[in-house]
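Bench notes, bay 3.
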Amino acid sequence: MATTRRQFLALGSMAAVALASTACGSKSSNGGSGTDDKSTTLTYWASNQGTSLANDKEVLAPVLAAFTKKTGIKVSLEVIGWNDLQTRIQTAITSGQGPDVLNIGNTWGVSLQATGGLMEFGDAEMKAIGGSDRFVKAALQTGGAAGTRPTSIPLYGLAYGLYYNKAMFKAAGVNPPTTWEEMVAAGKKLTDPSKNVYGMSLAAASYTENAHFAFIDAAQNGAALFDSSGKPTFTSSGVVDGVLRYIDLMQTDKIVNTSDSQYDNGTLSVTAFAKKKAAMIINQNNADATIIAAGMKAGDFGVVPFPAPKDAKKDVASHIAGINIAVMKSTRHKDQALKFVNYMTSESVQETLGKPYSALPVLKDGKATFTTDADELKVFTDVYNTKSEPLPLVPNEDQFESSVGKAMNNLFAKAATGKTVGSADVRAVLKTAQDSIR
């Protein structure tokens, strides 16, 4: 999640050349490993799942140490923030010089698959990690285009929910919302600019967050971002109206602080919520750890599904969110990398990491450990299983996130200065984004 990037398909030929050159002297592409376990050090790029990069290192250190003790395989860990991860992956695929194993946002699965830079999980590879049947089917589908062999495997499951401050809601005499209209009404009642307190906080400068809500709000309107042939349909009325509805939380409804137009990651809005500067946030279930780390007690907040308008065409509350784990095709340590993937997706490690990372289980029979709150567990599990749809499983999905998300960043910035953002403005920037898709 970064600056100028996402042109994975355009880099396909360059990646192929790079991979071919690095394949010389590497046995990985043909199913072997150049070293034995005890003399192998895997390089692992982990995504930022905890409260900070340092926190991730603390969480993962004992897990990786246990893997080394069990197998003899050492792991060199680097945790990379979301604003840099996709650029780093792009560079690694282009050059053929990168990690052995890496985490990816599962929405990037098809885009990265199309580059040819990631190892396919065929029958032998699937067998090495315990088989495909143990994974939640919808989660596994994010690893590649329909009818193809996946190039990434589910690692952490996530879904969006609407977090609310119980005490603030009680003091204002409002109930947790079940519709968009109720959410806005509650937000207005809870907003007091004189105290710098707002009904909601958004990561309005995060293009990834904005792209996700472009998808969700459009889906609530019954609109799709791509047609059946894979062509973008960003300028359809359902998409335009959905994006404007989201921008209006700041512009028209005024339940979001205009300073949120500078919030370029979800941690900032989560912190505002934990510090009682906002009564609501829309976040994935991994927000729990950050909320608590920022000083809020677990019992002080509740969660309900992100609500759709009363007249919504679909009751969509999230995309099928999460993190996948992949192996670089250029690795010299394929056998060891597969052992690591098998380990990281094992039931015991899933349970161990589920709590600090507030992750939903990606295994069919996995035990959820991300919270002891039965109500919260039910909300997120129900959303993940019944109210979520996958982001478009097309090779240029990554370009959608980048182009539309950044366009929305600019719309929020414009609204924050007091300039009016109307349907025509939204349609114009979405047309530009649509025309950029290749």
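Next record in the batch:
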Amino acid sequence: MRGARILGLLALLCSGLPVSAQELAEIGNLTCSLAEQSGSPDSEAGIGQARDMLCTFKPAARGAEETYTGTLQSAGDERPFDRGVLMWTVRGPASTEIQPGLLQQSFAVDAAAAANKVAPLVGEKTPIVLQAAKKEMQQVPDADSAKPTTVIISIVLKLKSSPA
């Protein structure tokens, strides 16, 4: 009986943890194709650049593939985006139900992430996290590097189509 109370208390305490501190399960993959960049490639420092995207969400288990339109806000060097495709592993609580429009929300950089790691993007409305899946998106420059890096500040996704 005492063990059940302790487990209940732990569950209650853990539910208040920020998303980055909770154990998250992989619930799918998000692949986004970036639209052509407007403006000249040597534009000023790349601060606050926005790129339109067309994305496909493929659930890891059951659920229909969905298409989203979106906007990516970034700062810094655009080289990681040269290939025009970005990929994220979508993570969430193991209890997450795959429903149409699950990713329709804003995602912002997790300020609580360690400085030497690429910060995941955290959902504004649900505890969904987008973790960079491609090696180029996970690279963090060493302290001696004078080259600017790219930081994805936020993305906004809107459901375009879902067969469900």
